[in-house]
Amino acid sequence: MERNAGNMNQTETQRRKAKRFRLRLAVIFSWRDEDGILQSGEGRTCNISSCGIYVRTKCAPFPGNAVEMNVFLPQPACDIRAAEIRANGQVTRVDQGPRDEVCGFAAMNRTVLIREPIEQALDKKDSAKNAATGRRQRNRAKHDIGVRRY
């Protein structure tokens, strides 16, 4: 029992060491319930750090559940789609509101990825592909010029 208490204190310390940012960002999340059925919800972040996320929502997974979250960063311009943070974690706490309504939950992150907008990723891929195609065409042209000289 003391061993678990030590782990809990270590988790508390780790959670508190990370700088928290008070950001209200749209988030969608999903988890599997006790029957293994995929559930999902949406809400807003209250604060976010490299170690965890606190989400305000009306439906939440139970403490201990694995949860996958997609947090949408603000859109930088009208013609650019917003990037997103994808985090996989474990629910550590669920807070109840008035009349036993869920107000939010905290999740410790296991993995965090920042995904750029799909348009940017495709543009980079097209640029790389075009650059490679251009190199091949220039190399072929050099080879063709060499062949024509014979």
Structure description:
With 150 residues, the protein is of the alpha+beta class. The chain folds into 2 domains: 2-115, predicted glycosyltransferase like domains (Thrombin, subunit H); 118-150. The chain is 31% helix and 39% strand. The chain is built from 2 helices and 6 strands. It has a 6-stranded antiparallel β-barrel with strand order 1-2-3-6-5-4. β1 and β2 (38-48) form a beta hairpin. The longest helix has 31 residues, at 118-148. The protein is elongated. The chain starts with a helix and ends with a helix.
Layout of helices and strands, plus pairs?
Elements: H1 2-17, E1 26-32, E2 38-48, E3 52-57, E4 66-72, E5 84-96, E6 102-115, H2 118-148
Antiparallel strand pairs: 1-2, 1-4, 2-3, 3-6, 4-5, 5-6
* CATH superfamily label of the largest domain: predicted glycosyltransferase like domains
The number of helical elements comes to 2
What's the arrangement of strands in the largest beta sheet? Answer: 1-2-3-6-5-4
Question: What is the gyration radius calculated from CA atoms?
Answer: 24 Å
Spans where pLDDT lies below 50 across 5 or more residues: 1-10, 141-150
Structural class: alpha+beta
| CATH level-1 class of the largest domain | Mainly Beta
Helix content class: 25-40%
Shape: elongated
CATH architecture of the largest domain: Beta Barrel
